[in-house]
Amino acid sequence: MRVLRFDLERPELEYYFHELYQAFDPGVKNVLTGKADGVLVEKTIGMQVVLTLTWEGGKSLTRTYQLNNSVEPLENSVYKGFLYDFLSEYFEKTLQWGTLTGIKPVKMVQKYYKQGWTSTQIRNRFRDYYRVSNDRTDLLLQIAKTQDSFIHSEQVNEANRRISIYVGIPLCPSKCDYCSFVSTIVDKKGENLQRYFDHLLIEIQKTGEVLKDSNLRIDTLYIGGGTPTVLSANQLERLMSVLEDSFDLSQLREYTLEAGRPETINREKLEVARAHGVERICLNPQSMNPQTLFSIGRPWEEGLLEQQVKLIKSLEFKTLNMDLIVGLGNETPDDFLQSLEAVIALDPQNITIHSLSIKKGSRLKDKNGIVVNEGYGEDFYQAVKKRLAMTGFDPYYLYRLKYTRDNSENIGYAKPGHEGIYNILMMAECQSTLGIGAGATGNLYDPVTDNITKVFTVKDVKTYNERFEEIVEKKLSEYKNYMCLFY
Ligand SMILES: C[S@@+](CC[C@H](N)C(=O)[O-])C[C@H]1O[C@@H](n2cnc3c(N)ncnc32)[C@H](O)[C@@H]1O
Ligand code: SF4
To answer: How far is the centre of ligand 1, averaged over its atoms, from the C-alpha of 292 (Å)?
Structure first.
């Protein structure tokens, strides 16, 4: 692995360059330390700026840019485009996402639309300014269009009065090697789970009290993890009853329960969920290949997933979501496509395709460091999209993670009417979410500035249990301040 460094005259761009370089060469270790292998020099001559990038071996690129006036410096995006063009020449390849390294490209499109841009203007912007491929730009425009009806389905003022609730259960039966989410393994007697659960119920009740006097109404409710179905049927019953007693759920557009791992559900738990109005349930194979699952420390039992899908269908949940991950274990593109076929055969209404991201906190990273293997190539991504489109699945939600194979994206696909509304709202950042529990970040939306303020909280169950009162008091005081805007 090489250690590379650039002497940039704009220190704020160093981190960005590190990311962009890694997008071209995922195996590279660290472009910020060590002796410089390349130097970017900027010279201003009158109203022109000349950028020269000289690389090891004498390779260089020079470009001249016109300044709009003598006061404003060149925008960072100009440097990004310049670096991109250089690296594109150097590596002799282009990136589907061009200079974009952020996780929410759909939101950029939504912003441009809000500012009155036309689709053509947005297309030109993404192509010329951000170097994004036409395929990905079209995908973004398609997704933004689909999301529009979920975001602006009511008058703007009314929409501002809707919020979502996320209840986090960051506990799991065991840890999967690739997973970087902070989750705690349930201990043998389930004591850490029970303690967490007792605290969680108190936090729910207290949050309900804060919300009571505001005239905000709850739009979507999401119980996520971890693996919330590590709770027993009795615990689920109690959790859902406390949620009903604490909040007015009469206007819910969507109620989701993440079931995650097939071995954590049974008829009793699903009946509880159904009786309390859960309509969207997530059951995730990640891969349908038993060897792959064993290799990443995820249990597999012959026929179990299929049996659980049958059970879910018999209870008539409106939407079944299933997650797959591209790039697990030693899987080839064909292995993934086989998993995809097997999932399609189970007939879920919603499929989320993630690209394996090797992040800090996962066992894979601890074992191997960040090693992102050779990509699967564009043909593979197009094949996945085409196969899903043939079966009636449209992309409705997209976000990107760092350290992925092919620098690619995560896409939620759904049959019309089965889109995950909570997912859409979260990514669009157009509504507040009250997070309840460990690791459940709150998003407080200010309709005047169109900005989100994050309310972070502790992520691990142990600290949450130990410092419960202080943690919840801090979180609630932020929620309370926000609610004052809506009395
Ligand atoms: C918070 S996890 C919870 C899922 C649930 N506990 C389960 O195991 O099925 C949500 C989803 O993120 C995806 N995910 C987790 N770790 C990932 C990684 N390192 N790279 C890509 N996707 C990942 C998985 O597809 C997973 O279903
Ligand atoms: S993938 Fe799901 S079950 Fe596995 S460790 Fe992560 S949150 Fe837990």
So the answer is: 15
